[in-house]
Design a protein that fits this description.
This protein has 708 residues and is an alpha+beta fold. It has 21 helices and 28 strands. The longest helix is centred in the middle third of the chain and has 31 residues. The chain starts with a strand and ends with a strand.
Length: 708
């Protein structure tokens, strides 16, 4: 039997986690691991708080406390929240632990001593003179060169997910002082990814490692392979990546010449999977190397799509450079979960965090599984998904209540009514009755093994639907009116109780609290590792899953209807969530309206027709002496050339505007500015931050055309 090591991305301990995080890396892993345990697999699932890096120090500065205060607060909050949702890590560790510091330093030292993995470079990096410190990537913000988002960090744009470097940002500023940073020399060590490019390409595209089959590349998600190939196929290939930084919070670089430097968090954090496994092994008397280096070891990473490159290119290169470590056989990265049509945003209050959900839904029956189910049904496995409260209600009332809950309730009620709460005896051939649900059960298992959890949970509901249909088709309550002793009643209830018992086990990976409740109602013991194998074996052999004569408990509701005419308390919880969003949208609209510049005094149509605006192209541009804001532009108007003086020099360099399509107001009275006669005005748009943009026609539309 193989030893499976499953990891989930280490969440930063600088804030609470929202529902998108749960759907991205933790709930899918929990479903997978719970299933493997039920199949008797040797599996260990590790995770933990990522407690280093600039994000922690930024949060600490904002709150006026220490980084240690921050990590203690959010490690405890997130760990407790995971536990309440039934996220069943074998070890939830933390990178501030000494065993992690030791492991990370040893890992760095091993690669350093090899002599061919690191490049030592002295170069200029951004520096904040006011704070007298070099700026880590997260201490720099600017405009994303990919999507234009104006709050992109120096390492990543949180709007489009692009991986960045500070040098790529447009108009970078220090998040500490708000000033434009300067450049200053510093020395750092870089991981030479170029050395690993050839084998990584073969490994990603063909699934081979050192000439031997390693994994099935077709089993990897398309967007995972696609993102990796975009890096590997880039014209410049893989570039060296800094693994140290100038920062006072983190793991000290174990070199005498590296005073004031720490390991870069991207290098430090994935090693946390190794140190967490070591900590688990120490607690359980196991050998951690069996799960990382053993011949039968298998590694699987659960992450969001923003972490694909780190887990499919960089960390595998680190592991192979070290030697002896197994590389991941799959990285089933999910895409992003949005919230009611927009991205989660703590600053705008858009969305709901995990601990907030638990608090605000505290009076909502089985709230944990209600959310787990909704997130699984709408999991962003291959494309971005959108969480909606109306959909949450629909999943809850139609499927959890109307299908699964209603089915269990009917079976228990009828069992107590007709057979005093005991499983009736029957000579029915279960092999024939099991045929359909055996197929659905096999499909459910296969879907989980392929990381297709949405389809897997659909199969769960299809089995419950089969049971409902079978019960309705037989309608034992009708038979009972005419012949209370009919064998057909006993047969129907006997078969139905087998289906309910099967559901009690198949629910466990998805909605574990519900599984426990069903097992209790059936008066069955809690599920143990490997129990699903016995259940599936009996199912395939046509044997009972619950024996005749077994007593079951009286029914209790698994879930309570949200849209309940007699009790609207649960509906009110949902309505309050919707009202918060309406208030946020109203506030945003009010803020935008307040920023809208007042409309100038009304003019007549005749006044407008006096304006002569035409298209043009800037053919030359030069600065004007002693006028920092002004550029002298030569504009081709298609048969006529004019000189225009424009106050755009602070935002545009002369060489940047040559060739630019523009709209020009021609019949403005000429005006001499700094000794240059301006014969028109270039039309510009200005955003709320004062950034200018040309008002232009389509490229190639022509010059001298009238704008009206």
């Amino acid at each position: 039997m193989s030893k499976k090591l499953v990891t989930s991305a280490l969440p930063y301990a600088n804030g609470a986690l929202h529902l998108g995080h749960l759907a991205g890396a933790y709930l899918p892993a929990d479903i997978y691991v719970r299933y493997l345990r039920l199949r008797g697999e040797d599996v260990v699932w590790v995770c933990g708080s990522d407690e280093h890096g600039a994000a922690i120090t930024i949060r600490a500065k904002k709150e006026g406390i220490t980084p240690q205060d921050i990590i203690e607060k959010y490690h405890a909050l997130n760990k407790n929240t995971f536990e309440q949702f039934g996220i069943s890590f074998d070890m939830y560790h933390r990178t501030s632990a000494e065993i992690h510091h030791e492991t990370a330093r040893e890992f760095f030292t091993k690669l350093y001593e090899r002599g061919d993995q690191f490049i030592e470079k002295t170069n200029e990096q951004y520096y904040d003179a006011e704070y007298n410190q070099f700026l880590a990537d997260r201490f720099i913000k600017g405009i994303c060169p990919t999507c234009g988002y104006e709050e992109a960090y120096g390492d990543q744009c949180e709007n489009c997910g692009s991986t960045l470097s500070p040098e790529e940002l447009i108009e970078p500023v220090s998040t500490l002082s708000g000033n434009k940073p300067e450049k200053k020399e510093t020395t750092h060590w870089y991981f030479d990814l170029k050395k690993h490019e050839k084998w990584l390409k073969e490994w990603i595209e063909n699934g081979t490692l050192d000439g031997e089959p390693h994994h099935d590349p077709k089993a990897w998600k398309n967007h995972v392979v696609g993102q990796c190939k975009s890096w590997l196929d880039a014209e410049e290939g893989l570039l060296p990546r800094a693994i140290t930084r100038d920062l006072d919070w983190g793991i000290k670089v174990p070199l005498p010449q590296a005073d004031g430097k720490v390991l870069y968090v991207w290098f430090d954090a994935p090693i946390g999977y190794i140190s967490a496994t070591k900590a688990w092994a120490e607690q359980n008397g196991k050998n951690w190397e069996d799960y990382w280096k053993g011949d039968d070891a298998e590694l699987i990473h659960f992450i969001g799509k923003d972490n694909i490159v780190f887990h499919c290119i960089i960390f595998p290169a680190m592991l192979k450079a070290y030697g002896d470590f197994k590389l991941p056989t799959n990285v089933p990265a999910n895409q992003f979960l949005n919230f009611e049509g927009d991205k989660f945003s703590k600053s705008r209050g858009w969305g709901i965090e995990q601990h907030e959900y638990l608090e605000e839904f505290k009076d909502f029956p089985n709230k944990e599984d209600a959310l787990r189910y909704a997130l699984t049904r709408n999991m962003p496995e291959n494309r971005d998904a959108d969480f909606k409260w109306d959909e949450f209600v629909e999943f809850h009332d139609k499927e959890l209540v109307g299908n699964l809950g209603n089915y269990l309730n009917r079976i228990l009620v009828l069992t107590h009514k007709y057979f005093d709460g005991k499983v009736p005896a029957s000579d029915v051939d279960l092999t024939e009755k099991y045929a359909d649900i055996l197929h659905l059960t096999a499909s459910l298992a296969k879907r989980i093994e392929l990381f297709d959890f949405k389809q897997a949970v659909n199969r769960l509901m299809e089995i419950s639907s089969w049971g409902n249909t079978y019960l309705q088709d037989v309608s034992p309550w009708k038979i009972y009116k005419e012949n209370p002793d009919s064998e057909e009643i006993a047969e129907c209830m006997y078969v139905s109780l087998q289906v309910v018992t099967l559901l009690s086990a198949l629910c466990a990976p998805f909605i574990p609290f519900t599984s426990e409740k069903i097992r209790n109602l059936l008066n069955l013991p809690a599920l143990q590792n490997g129990d699903l194998n016995d259940i599936l074996e009996n199912l395939g052999a046509g044997k009972p899953l619950i024996d005749a004569g077994h007593s079951v408990n009286k029914p209790e509701l698994l879930f309570a209807q949200i849209n309940d005419r007699k009790d609207d308390s649960r509906k009110q919880i949902i309505e309050r969530q919707k009202e918060k969003l309406v208030a946020i949208l109203a506030q945003k609209a009010a803020e935008e309206a307040a920023k809208f510049k007042p409309v100038k005094p009304e003019i007549s149509f005749e006044d407008f027709t006096k304006l002569d605006i035409r298209t043009g192209k800037i053919t030359a541009a030069e600065p004007i002496k002693k006028a920092d804001k002004l550029l002298k532009l030569t504009v081709d108007l298609g048969g006529q050339t004019r000189t225009v003086v424009s106050g755009i020099a602070l935002q545009f360099k002369p060489e940047e505007v040559v060739g630019q399509q523009v709209a020009v107001l021609l019949n403005l009275a000429p005006r001499k500015m700094r000794g240059v006669l301006s014969e028109g005005m270039i039309l510009m748009a200005e955003n709320k931050e004062g950034k200018l943009s040309f008002v232009q026609s389509d490229e190639g539309f022509g010059e001298g055309l009238e704008v009206r």
